[in-house]
Amino acid sequence: WLCHGRTILVSTARVVELLNNENKSVLVHCSDGWDRTAQTVALAELLLDPFYRTIEGLIVLIEKEWLQFGHQFALRVGHDKGTMGNYKEGQRSPIFFEFLDCVFQLMNIYPKVFEWNETLLISIIEELY
User: Fold this and answer.
1) pLDDT digit string, tens, across residues 10-29
2) What is the DSSP string of the chain?
3) What does the alpha-carbon distance between residue 106 and residue 108 come to, in Å, rounded to a whole number?
4) What is the pLDDT of residues 36-59, one digit of tens each?
5) Of 10, 20, 30, 63, which residue is the catalytic one?
6) Is residue 31 within 8 Å of residue 95, measured between CB atoms?
7) Residue 42: which of 55, 31, 28, 32 has the closest Cα?
8) Contact status, residue 113 vs residue 53, Cβ threshold 8 Å
9) Are 9 and 103 contacting, i.e. CB atoms less than 8 angstroms apart?
10) What is the pLDDT of residue 30?
11) CA separation (Å) from 42 to 70, 86, 87, 126?
């Protein structure tokens, strides 16, 4: 788990460095475009734009980079197995939870820049289940 989180944060740091320090454009795309892409882009936006560190901003960020982008929550979390024609146990993966864990790690590193605390993150996780 920690190795995955580190990899996500390292890739996010590189995106932020390229955009913010080197004024370069970036294209982020993981192997299938669904999972690591949303994690990396959403975390980069969280670091680069203080709006996303507000409660409203976090809601907008999740809506934009996870819901509108089409993250496969039901498939990754494993909800509603009986009605999902494409449900496969092997497709379950804690992608969104990894994202929230990375957000939590950033909150620990930069405790004064976020408008929310871990209670909001826990509430989001509880609502997903």
Assistant:
1) 999 999 999 999 999 999 88
2) -HHHHHHHHHHHHHHHIIIIIS--------SSSSSHHHHHHHHHHHHH-GGGGSHHHHHHHHIIIIITTT--HHHHHT--GGG-TT--GGG---HHHHHHHHHHHHHHHSTTS-SS-HHHHHHHHHHH-
3) 5
4) 788 999 999 999 999 999 999 999
5) 30
6) no
7) 28
8) yes
9) no
10) 75
11) 14, 27, 26, 20
Q: Is 102 a catalytic residue?
A: no
**Both structure tokens of 29:** 């795309």
Distance CA 71, CA 95 (A): 9
Per-residue confidence (pLDDT) for residue 97, from 0 to 100: 87
CA angle 7, 97, 59 (to 5 degrees): 110
Predicted model pTM: 0.85
Burial 72-85 (b: 16+ CB within 10 A, else e): eeebbbbeeeeeee
Residues 7, 90: Cα–Cα separation, whole Å = 21
Q: At what angle do helices 36-48 and 2-16 cross, to 10 degrees?
A: 50
